[in-house]
TrEMBL record:
Chain positions covered by the region annotation Disordered: 396-416
Domain HTH myb-type: start-end pairs: 613-672
Name assigned to this protein: Telomere repeat-binding protein 5
Keyword DNA-binding appears in the UniProt entry: yes
Residue ranges constituting the Myb-like domain according to the UniProt record: 613-668
Chief location category: nucleus
Organism the protein comes from: Phaseolus coccineus
GO molecular function: telomeric DNA binding
GO cellular component, one term: nucleus
Coiled coil: none
Subcellular localization: Nucleus
CDD domains: SANT_TRF (cd11660)
Family matches, as Pfam families: Myb_DNA-binding, Ubiquitin_TPR1
Gene3D superfamilies in alphabetical order: 1.10.246.220
Length: 717
DNA sequence: GTTAGGG
DNA sequence: CCCTAAC
């Protein structure tokens, strides 16, 4: 859908603003997320490729990594940095073809002040520079801990590095691409944050790649990643001590090191998945949450990866918002019971806001993935892949474009799948954006139209979305059911299966737009962040409101499904229609809350989030509303807002008398300032004149009355 | 629950 | 729009 694109862009745009310089962590977070998103796509491809290779070659990665690493490392470590605990990367680099010298140097240099020295080098030399890489890597390793401290900018500056890190195993391609491109995608930069994580290994690996040493890279990865992993990517962990297998894991390691000090290197192997997951974790961490990631990473089985992806892509935000407390919703519903609790348990994302904010990112990701990357990536929840194919054979996908095409995917999927019983592969190419009702004056500019649409979309997204599963036209609400129980199996025609983005509210749909439609409640919702338990019932209703929204894909006629929901709950929608018809005046509005929330994203999410979460969506008054307000005030006067509300806005639920009072206040102010100073939708001068007149009249009257009151008592006394 | 006003 | 004091 067009909207997708818009959303995508919009998010990006928003994101940017969101980046605040305020906090390192915040910045990191934002950038990190982005990178992750960008990287993910790549990662998938890489993973797929790797997986294929592995399968075909059946090499044993583990050996590779261990061996090579071991010696190199030791030697390296001993020589260069004794201090540094994590020489692994260096090895990688060596293997990669990097010069030991460089490494050593790096190490030496890096060890002492691993944290920050890198930057300069990187920036100067660029990603290609081995030294730079080595430095980075060394730092990373050293750090395991230090990374955290890495300044994002540094990383960002070195897109190449960052990218590498991020993608880790998966990213090989990614990295390569980026390197080639130079900066690579936008995302690359973002990666930087990640870079921290993986940077260590990555730089070198990157270099190799550049050099054309793909094979090496893969090998490394492989080494790290065990063949068996159905997940392909992950190789479970490298037991190598904690030192990261380095190369392969560069990403993973990096993450670990960067994000979680404690995180085990094992994550390396995980590569892409980790990344995704990590990213999430990172987010959390950044936000201040405890880092679950460590646990996850270290502990997580390979399978987790998929889940992560899924979550991230699909749910990430939504989940957070809605589920945080309840792990299952998305994961369960969409994914399946198989999912590991690990992720499902996400920690609380701090705040709803954050989550909201995140959504965009994630969405972005989703979109991207969907459109661009999808091919590669399916998400695997637990064991389920959402690509269209069934695990082994059938490709049931909505999208006409079959997943089967993706070699990478398929191969990975299969391998991964094998490990588990049967898996259902689903491919979600894109999500349709819920229906939005927008009312805008003919005189509005295209720009304002765009903004309005954006706001509406943002509001929806910002409010938090959740994923709805539709099967045979019916919403599947029982999150606890397994796919099998629900009838979603490889044996079935997945075309009957649909996914929808639904508003995830915890509260009521507040806004339903004036009239409207569905809206997104998020703003109103109290839900927030952590553990906010939302009652299913409520949710459903809300959803209903939104129900229109769903949509699923292209080919399949999921569309029908959408409304099915209504049945369960009384839908606001119906009302909407009525309202709309009845109140021509009312706006249908477009809420925008998203912007604000987004802006906040990066940093302080917590506090703000909370606040924002509850804030109502902003619904600018339309000229018609203003006209009605003026008329009512002229008749009733100021100070009787409740009456005004009843008289002129009785049917506008979203307009409280306080709102009307505030609007009047602003109208008076607007009328007094020069037209050039006015913002927003212009209000006819005629109305403003009436505002001033009425205001003067009633003010005068009020004054008189007050005088009377005062005087009277005095007199009486 | 309303108003009024500051933020 | 939110928040709060005051009514």
């Amino acid at each position: 859908m067009v909207l997708q694109k818009r959303l995508y862009y919009s998010f990006n745009g928003y994101q940017v603003p969101t980046k605040r310089r305020a906090t390192r962590s915040a910045r990191r977070n934002a950038t990190f997320q982005r990178r992750l998103e960008d990287n993910q796509m790549c990662a998938f491809d890489l993973l797929a490729t790797v997986a294929d290779n592995l399968l075909q070659e059946k090499q044993n990665p583990t050996t590779y990594s261990d061996r090579s690493m071991g010696k190199d490392r030791d030697g390296f470590v001993k020589e260069e940095c004794q201090n540094a605990n994590k020489p692994l990367k260096t090895e990688l680099s060596d293997e990669a073809s990097c010069d030991r010298r460089c490494q050593h140097e790096f190490v030496k240099e890096g060890c002492p002040d691993a944290n920050k020295p890198l930057k300069p080098e990187l920036s100067d030399e660029g990603s290609t520079d081995r030294k730079g890489f080595s430095n980075i890597s060394s730092q990373v390793y050293n750090q395991n801990c230090c990374l955290k401290e890495f300044p994002i900018h540094e990383i960002e500056g070195h897109s190449g590095i960052a990218s590498i890190v991020t993608s880790s195993s998966c990213s090989e391609k990614f990295v390569a691409e980026k390197l080639v491109d130079g900066k690579g995608q936008n995302g690359t930069e973002n990666l930087a944050s990640k870079v921290e994580l993986g940077s260590s290994g990555s730089p070198e690996s990157i270099g190799c790649k550049l050099d054309g040493d793909v094979s090496k890279v893969k090998d490394v990865k492989f080494g790290k990643v065990p063949m068996d992993t159905g997940t392909g990517l992950c190789c479970s962990e490298d037991p190598l001590d904690e030192k990261p297998a380095a190369l392969i894991s560069s990403c993973g390691n990096a993450k670990l090191s960067g994000y979680d000090d404690s995180i085990p290197h094992s994550s390396l192997s995980k590569g892409c998945d980790n990344m995704l997951v990590d990213s999430r974790d990172d987010d959390e961490n950044f936000s201040g949450c405890a880092h679950p990631s460590n646990k996850i990473k270290s502990t997580r089985p390979i399978t987790c990866i998929d889940d992560r992806k899924i979550k991230k892509r699909l749910a990430s935000k939504y989940h957070k918002a809605a589920q945080e407390s309840k792990p299952d919703k998305l994961s369960n519903s969409v994914l399946d019971g198989n999912l590991k609790p690990v992720y499902s348990n996400r920690k609380n994302y701090y705040k709803s806001q954050r989550s909201q904010m995140n959504i965009p990112f994630k969405k972005r990701k989703l979109f991207k993935c969907g459109s661009d990357t999808n091919s590669n990536g399916y998400i695997r929840s637990g064991d389920t892949y959402f690509s269209l194919k069934n695990e082994t054979n059938q490709s049931v996908s909505y999208s006409s474009s079959g997943m089967s095409k993706d070699h990478g995917t398929s191969s990975l999927g299969h391998s991964a799948l094998r490990s588990r019983d049967s898996h259902v592969k689903l491919r979600i190419k894109s999500f349709r954006v819920p229906e939005l009702l927008i009312e805008i004056p003919e005189t509005a500019t295209i720009g304002s139209l765009k903004r309005t649409v954006m706001e509406a979309v943002t509001a929806v997204l910002g409010g938090g979305l959740r994923v709805g599963v539709i099967l045979h036209g019916k919403k599947v609400r029982d999150d606890s059911k397994t796919l099998l129980q629900t009838g979603i199996s490889h044996d079935n025609h997945l075309d009957a299966l649909g996914f929808a983005l639904e508003p995830n509210f915890s509260q009521n749909l507040p806004p339903a737009c004036a009239t409207s439609s569905l809206r997104i409640p998020s703003a109103d919702m109290p839900q927030p962040f952590i553990g906010y338990p939302s009652s299913p019932a409520v949710i459903h209703q809300r959803i209903q409101g939104f129900s229109n929204t769903l949509a699923e894909h292209q080919a399949t006629g999921l569309g029908n499904l959408v409304e099915s929901d209504h049945d369960s709950a009384p839908s606001p929608i119906n009302t909407l229609g009525e309202k709309i018809l009845s109140d021509s005046k009312e706006l249908i509005t477009v809420p925008e809350m998203g912007m604000e929330a987004l802006a906040v994203l990066p940093g302080h999410q917590k506090s703000k989030r909370t606040e924002i979460a509850q804030r109502r969506i902003r619904r600018p008054f339309s000229v018609a509303e203003v006209e009605a307000l003026v008329q009512a005030v002229e008749k009733l006067g100021t100070g009787r807002w409740r009456d005004v509300k009843l008289r002129a806005f009785d049917n506008a639920k979203h307009r409280t008398y306080v709102d009307l009072k505030d609007k009047w206040k602003t109208l008076v102010h607007t009328a007094r300032i020069s037209p050039q100073q006015r913002r927003g939708e212009p209000v006819p001068q005629e109305l403003l004149d009436r505002v001033l007149t009425a205001h003067a009249y009633w003010s005068q009257l009020q004054t008189k009355q007050q005088l009377k009151h005062h005087s009277k008592p005095c007199l009486l006394l």
